[in-house]
């Protein structure tokens, strides 16, 4: 099992397969995708070697992310190779959902077990204002299909003062009779979004207090669980989650590592740089990759420095997949 010098264990890999995205979320890619690097994304065979290497080191969960991962035509093949790897029990995807209704059953057939979709507002006009796309209805119908297929579904909203900070009651209403977890993510500063961040960052802690006052109970976390806090209520089928990266001890429960679409290991979402693992993907066995990953992990730091305004090399989260 991959373990760092602080005793944290890493059984969860976030694997970005592209940094291209078709949306223009105000907090992420407000001007749309700009091709800044060579688009030499990991091939299916490279992804297979990465997944084998991580599985050999105890990884049991893989999240496929991007950019927008559903822009890759070989996505079903990638899902299947993850699901078919010994030791990988959970294969998840994070998507903006624009093609969900067309593809979710293919993805589930390929072995997808969990789905995260980003929806920052249930008001179609506000949704379009944030993302640049009038797609809310299509995305919601894709989510209905995913729920009916029986996979785990989570919906993520980034909390923003000027857009959705007063929408808590709508979010709660939405999970009233749906077996879905709706998670509010505190807006994070990145290299490119400082003024948007300054105008829109809202802390999650007052929302937590509001939930507790309204009879929601915090779910007791499993030891291996990550930093999200979840809440349930006897009158609601769904759950609410809060992700508060500026909160105390957020990094203490870090259980994940990240690989970018260009084959770089990021020890933290806000690391200074990624560490190139492509040179270790040629060998016929996983041995050299396993040794490289184990050695690279010794440099993982205790925490990010987001609260000091330090965002490392991360210009926006489409670079890495959040
Ligand atoms: N395109 C896919 C999507 O939007 O779900 C996957 C990639 S996106 C970068 C992954 C997640 O990061 C989304 O839930 C998105 O809302 C979130 N995200 C992007 N930028 C963020 C920021 N600055 N602060 C907090 N969350 C952010
Ligand atoms: Fe694209 Fe996701 Fe970033 Fe929105 S948050 S611009 S959908 S990568």
Q: Per DSSP, what share of the residues sits in E-state strands of 2 or more residues?
A: 15-25%
- The domain count comes to 1
SSE ordering: EHEHEHEHHEHEHHEEEEEEH
Question: Per CATH, which architecture?
Answer: Alpha-Beta Barrel
Briefly note the CATH topology name. TIM Barrel
How many β strands by DSSP?
12
Strand count, sense and closure of the main sheet? 12 strands, mixed
Please give the count of helices: 9
- Coarse morphology: globular
What structural class do the secondary elements suggest?
A: alpha/beta
Fourth-level CATH superfamily: Aldolase class I
Distance from N terminus to C terminus (CA atoms, Å) equals 23 Å
Rg, alpha carbons: 19 Å
Q: Round the mean pLDDT to the nearest integer and report it.
A: 96
Helix and strand topology:
Elements (H helix, E strand, L loop, with lengths): L11 E5 L27 H13 L4 E5 L9 H9 L6 E6 L4 H11 L3 E5 L5 H8 L4 H13 L3 E8 L8 H7 L6 E6 L7 H7 L4 H9 L3 E2 L10 E4 L6 E5 L12 E4 L4 E3 L8 E2 L10 H11 L25
Parallel strand pairs: 1-2, 1-10, 2-3, 3-4, 4-5, 5-6, 6-9
Antiparallel strand pairs: 7-8, 8-9, 10-11, 11-12
The protein binds S-adenosylmethionine (SAM) and iron/sulfur cluster.
Iron/sulfur cluster (SF4) binds next to loops.
């Amino acid at each position: 099992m991959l373990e760092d010098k602080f005793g944290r264990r890493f059984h969860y890999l976030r694997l970005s397969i592209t940094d291209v995205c078709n949306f223009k979320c105000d907090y992420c890619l407000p001007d749309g995708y700009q091709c800044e690097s060579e688009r030499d994304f990991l091939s299916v065979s490279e992804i297979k070697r990465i997944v084998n290497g991580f599985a050999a080191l105890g990884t049991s969960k893989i999240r496929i992310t991007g950019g927008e991962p559903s822009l890759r035509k070989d996505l079903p093949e990638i899902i299947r190779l993850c699901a078919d790897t010994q030791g990988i029990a959970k294969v998840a995807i994070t998507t903006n959902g624009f093609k969900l209704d067309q593809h979710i059953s293919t993805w589930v057939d390929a072995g997808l077990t969990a789905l995260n979709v980003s929806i920052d507002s249930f008001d179609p006009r506000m949704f379009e204002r944030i993302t640049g796309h009038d797609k809310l209805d299509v995305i919601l119908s894709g989510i209905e299909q995913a729920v009916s297929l029986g996979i785990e579904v989570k919906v993520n909203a980034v909390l923003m003062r000027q857009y959705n900070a007063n929408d808590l009651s709508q979010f709660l209403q939405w999970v009233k009779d749906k077996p879905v977890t709706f998670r509010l993510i505190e807006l994070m500063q990145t290299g490119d979004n400082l003024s948007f961040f300054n105008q829109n960052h809202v802390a999650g802690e007052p929302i937590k207090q509001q939930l507790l006052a309204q009879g929601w109970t915090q779910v007791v976390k499993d030891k291996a669980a990550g930093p999200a806090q979840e809440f349930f209520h006897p009158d609601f089928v769904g759950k609410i989650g809060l992700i508060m990266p500026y909160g105390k001890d957020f990094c203490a429960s870090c259980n994940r590592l990240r690989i970018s679409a260009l084959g770089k290991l990021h020890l933290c979402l806000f690391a200074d740089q990624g560490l190139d693992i492509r040179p270790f993907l040629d060998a016929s066995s996983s041995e050299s990759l396993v040794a490289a990953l184990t050695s690279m992990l010794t440099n993982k730091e205790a925490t990010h420095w987001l609260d000091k305004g330090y965002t490392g090399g991360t210009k926006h989260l489409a670079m890495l997949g959040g």
